[in-house]
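queue> pop job 88
queue> type: inverse folding (structure -> sequence)
queue> payload:
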């Protein structure tokens, strides 16, 4: 489950940015490769989670291979060389679809036959069988050629993701659920704003808005092709479904209004909403567009009015479109979001849209017109300074449920491994952007990011509510829960609304003891994401001279000493951190003269070392933030890392090893610049309690 794979989320042209935002919210790093394709990496659980949660994607594909194919020999032989056994069992059903664009291999049927034959020959050899029954689970494969670049994929989804399972009936010109959700997400609407769709048809846009407002996973009611695969445990799917149910929100206060002139289609819309579980959230009403009105202010009208391609001749629809300016002006403070294929729409309305976006409703090219209304005036329903509203209380309850769930999931392994500190929560719920770490019987909360659209006093009360809620959910004394804001420097932790003096406790990890500070700075003195890396250093330290650069509080030095290091040298520019490191070493009984501490700029330290002073093992974990005044941080940036690593390699004996880590996600190592065998080990070093598998990057470099 921990192996990383590359996946492709396919989507309609124009929706790639929306799919990217959804993937980021799920904790994945997306990248566009071609129109309609968004790639991302993840383990096998990503198949279940993305199929369950992606609202605007059509499918989730496994990217099996990608290669140049200008002739059938290259296509056949490369396909045959792929390790198909990794994905396809011997009894797999594997039909092959195909497409080709701007490529020399233009015949799609011929490409499909070549790929099918190559897979068959590979499967017979790899599974060591004489026949392939193809009577097992479905693994729909595809060969896609673009500019002679062949991409082999396997579909994990089955029927397209727009088939949520709630819409058995549709009107004459239905809009796909994925596009409807995208329209809502690209609008200004949120669950505290009035919503109106005057051409609701079978109710798809209103239903998708209600599901979005309740954080209902769109795939919860359906099955997927990959759910039948033996390579993905049923527990993975159950965990994804449990997570989806756990994060679902109750009914919100605002009732969505959806109207249509046809009472028969409204009956269908109500049935669809009931099946989707949001019937109590939407008010369906029979009404002509000419009768549109609302006393509410600052709402969002989001609609898919009829257009000639499907419903009727355009001449019959023209009077409807001509009436729109007069009807829509009855909602002067609203914002209007309308999709249509009629290219003269703006001219007909005599108003240019604030934004236009080309989208596709099926195969019909449309434009999504966005007319932005005035910003709402300030509502004085809250106290002038601070205050907790109903939404905050709802978020607190959701936060507590998620924490209880995570604590239950992680209840066994910390005790077995002697770990007192681990991550419980990291922006699992996007609207609650916090990090929660457990340090023995204490909690450490910090803001993941500072929202820019909140009243600071009200947000301060919101943070306090979250701190207290977390303590209550995890049965921790409220006085033992500390909250820090991201970006603060010498500020104190929020702790019962009173700035506290330095609050330091002793914690345990893998049988070793460390001092952590829960009150000052965002960092506590023990980076939890390096737990596995520290153990690697421990296992490699026996009888070694170990150099710990940018040592911070010396946790790597403690592990090295525990692993039987002959000596440790702990180097940092900060005297405060060096003192902390020495206290950590003393706490574990490592007090001999073989353990030394050096306060110095790293560059100056390396250049001043006597030529005969060499080491066997080095840890290089520089700070990430380049805006610091520290000379090391100014030096250790992307373009200077070869100088740093080669300087360290010069101080190692033959066969010596560097463990190099950075939190800079876009960091790239040009191996030709490094005088050593360089191997990235990032995925082996991220602990299992971290949902974000890209929390850091790590390399093991062995001197030639």
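queue> result:
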């Amino acid at each position: 489950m921990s192996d990383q794979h590359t996946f492709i989320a396919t989507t309609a042209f124009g929706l790639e940015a929306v799919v990217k935002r959804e993937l980021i919210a799920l904790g994945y790093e997306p990248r566009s490769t071609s129109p309609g394709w968004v790639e991302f990496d993840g383990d096998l659980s990503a198949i279940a989670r993305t199929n369950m949660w992606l609202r605007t994607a059509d499918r989730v594909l496994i990217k099996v291979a990608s290669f140049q194919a200008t002739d059938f020999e290259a296509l056949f032989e490369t396909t045959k060389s792929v390790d198909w056994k990794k994905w396809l069992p011997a009894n797999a059903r594997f039909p092959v679809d195909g497409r080709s664009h701007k490529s020399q291999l233009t015949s799609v049927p011929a490409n499909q036959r070549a790929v099918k034959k190559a897979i068959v020959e590979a499967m017979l050899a790899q599974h060591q069988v004489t026949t392939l029954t193809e009577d097992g689970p479905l693994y729909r494969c595809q060969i896609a050629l673009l500019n002679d670049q062949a991409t082999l994929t396997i579909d994990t989804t089955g029927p397209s993701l727009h088939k949520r399972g709630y819409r058995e009936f549709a009107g004459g010109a239905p809009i796909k659920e994925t596009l409807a959700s995208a329209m809502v997400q690209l609008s200004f609407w949120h669950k505290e704003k009035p919503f109106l769709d005057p051409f609701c048809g079978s109710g798809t846009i209103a239903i998708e808005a209600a599901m979005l407002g309740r954080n209902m996973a769109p795939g919860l009611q359906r099955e997927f092709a990959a759910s039948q695969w033996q390579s993905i445990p049923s527990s993975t799917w159950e965990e994804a479904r449990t997570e989806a149910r756990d994060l679902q929100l109750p009914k919100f206060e605002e009732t969505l209004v959806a109207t249509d002139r046809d009472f028969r289609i409204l009956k269908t819309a109500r049935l669809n909403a009931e099946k989707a579980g949001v019937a109590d959230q939407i008010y369906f009403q029979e009404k002509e567009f000419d009768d549109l009105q609302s006393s509410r202010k600052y709402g969002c009208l989001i609609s898919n009015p009829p257009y000639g391609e499907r419903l009727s001749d355009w001449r019959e629809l023209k009077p409807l479109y001509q009436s729109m300016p007069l009807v829509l002006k009855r909602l002067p403070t609203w914002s209007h979001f309308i999709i249509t294929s009629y290219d003269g729409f703006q001219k007909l309305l005599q108003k240019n849209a604030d934004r236009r976006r080309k989208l596709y409703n099926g195969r019909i090219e449309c434009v999504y017109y966005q007319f932005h209304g005035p910003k709402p005036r300030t509502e004085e329903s809250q106290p002038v300074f601070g205050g907790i509203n109903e939404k905050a209380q709802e978020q607190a309850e959701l936060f507590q449920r998620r924490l209880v769930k995570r604590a239950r999931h992680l209840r066994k392994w910390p005790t077995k491994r002697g770990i007192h500190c681990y991550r419980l929560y990291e922006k699992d719920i996007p609207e609650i952007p916090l990090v929660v770490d457990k340090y023995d019987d204490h909690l450490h909360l910090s803001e993941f990011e500072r929202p820019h659209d909140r009243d600071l006093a009200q947000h301060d009360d919101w943070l306090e509510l979250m701190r207290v809620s977390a303590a209550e959910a995890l049965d921790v004394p409220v006085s033992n829960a500390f909250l820090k804001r991201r970006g603060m420097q010498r500020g104190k932790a929020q702790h019962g609304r009173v700035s506290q003096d330095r609050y330091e406790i002793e914690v345990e990890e893998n049988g070793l003891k460390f001092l952590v500070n829960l009150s000052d700075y965002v960092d506590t003195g023990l980076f939890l994401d390096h737990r596995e890396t520290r153990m690697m250093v421990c296992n490699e330290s026996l009888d070694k001279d170990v150099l710990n650069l940018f040592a911070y509080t010396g946790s790597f030095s403690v592990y090295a000493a525990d692993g039987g290091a002959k000596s440790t040298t702990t180097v940092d520019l900060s005297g405060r951190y060096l003192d902390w490191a020495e206290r950590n070493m003393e706490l574990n009984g490592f007090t001999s003269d073989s353990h030394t501490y050096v306060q110095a700029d790293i560059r100056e330290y390396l250049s001043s070392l006597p030529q005969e002073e060499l080491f066997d093992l080095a840890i290089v974990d520089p700070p990430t933030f380049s805006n610091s005044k520290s000379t090391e941080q100014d030096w250790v940036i992307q373009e200077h890392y070869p100088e740093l690593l080669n300087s360290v390699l010069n101080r190692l004996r033959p066969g010596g090893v560097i463990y190099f880590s950075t939190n800079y996600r876009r960091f790239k190592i040009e191996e030709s610049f490094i005088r050593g065998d360089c191997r990235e080990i990032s995925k082996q070093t991220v602990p299992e309690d971290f949902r974000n598998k890209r929390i850091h990057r790590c390399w093991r470099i062995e001197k030639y």
